[in-house]
Amino acid sequence: MSYGLAQRRLHPTGRAKGRRPMGFTLIELLVVVAIVALLVCMLLPSLVTVRLLGKRTACQASLRAIGCAVGVYQRDFGDYVPICWQNLGSHFKNPWKSWRASLLPYVPSYAAFNCAAATDTGQMGEVFHSAAEITSHDLTDTANAGSYGVMYQYSLPSYMTPNYSGIMARGHPAWSLAFSTLPRVAWRDPANSVYVADACLAKGSVTYPSEGYKGYGTSAIVPPSAQGYFDVGVTRRFADRHLGTNCLFVGGQVVSYATESLDHMTTGADDCVWDTK
Fold it and tell me: How far, in Å, CA of 37 to CA of 44, rounded?
């Protein structure tokens, strides 16, 4: 008998007697699988939260790019910012460009108008795929497209600006080109007033996170104080896509709010961030 065989006896199966078979038993595998599944269940909510917070940060970067564009626009156009958001239809042709088309030459890319958490259907909806989608469809289709909306509100009563027919009238996003950013002209406190924010075209009751309407987006936000904001009909709301709503103020700062907090701000209250009065 050779030296190697003399040092050990072979089991009838060919394995060295007294040694454990290689690999895991079925029970051990099941225990490992159960532990992994438990860890996944525990970590998944955290991973989803981290993912949404990452999208919120990317969204804030886009809004800051828009804010920088607004700053340059103001220098070029005497302290005005674009607020026009739609074409009023065949009867009233608004000559002004929408706020997005006006700012497009000032942003690094058309992608600045897309929230990172917006739903991309492959067609023009919440997400734009080219600058042409913003300009060639300007005013008509883009009123119901995009993931950011301009704050839809009248200016202060004393502010007059040319409307869609060229007549001087009180400033309004549907009828006018721009609002002055000087204090107490169009806005009472421009630096602390929301200019553009996460928005969606919605139908039905308010939900958190927000549920968009048929893949459409919106170019404007109706103040929650407006009739119909909480109704089941189609309306334009603050969007809760990434654990809150990012808001770009006229002053250029970007702030994230709990969407429910924005939805329940009261016009005229000190903490209201869209009131012009």
Answer: 10
Longest dimension (CA), the chain: 113
Residue 260 neighbours by CB under 8 Å, 6+ apart = 208, 240
* Whether 151 contacts 225, CB under 8 Å: no
Q: Please provide the DSSP assignment of 86-128 as one string.
A: ----SSS---SPPHHHHHGGGSS-GGGGS-TTS---SSSSSS-
User: Which pLDDT band, with edges at 50, 70 and 90, does 3 fall under?
Assistant: very low
- Residue owning tokens 């000087």: 182
User: Which residues have a Cβ under 8 Å from the Cβ of 101 and sit 6 or more positions away?
Assistant: 134, 135, 138, 139, 142
Average pLDDT over residues 228-244: 93
Q: Give me 188's structure tokens.
A: 């009472």
Q: How would residue 161 be classed by pLDDT, with cut points 50, 70 and 90? A: confident
Q: Tell me, what's the pLDDT at 125?
A: 93
Please state whether the predicted TM-score (pTM) of the whole model is above 0.90. Answer: no
Q: What is the 3-state secondary structure (H, E, C) of 154-223?
A: CCCCCCEEECCCCCEEECCCCCCCEEECCCCCCCCCHHHCEEEEEEEEEECCCCCCCCECCCCCCCEECC
Which of 150, 141, 157, 193 shows the shortest CA–CA distance to 173? Answer: 150
Q: What is the pLDDT of residue 106?
A: 97
Backbone angles phi, psi at 27, to 5 degrees: -65, -45
DSSP structural state of residue 53:
H
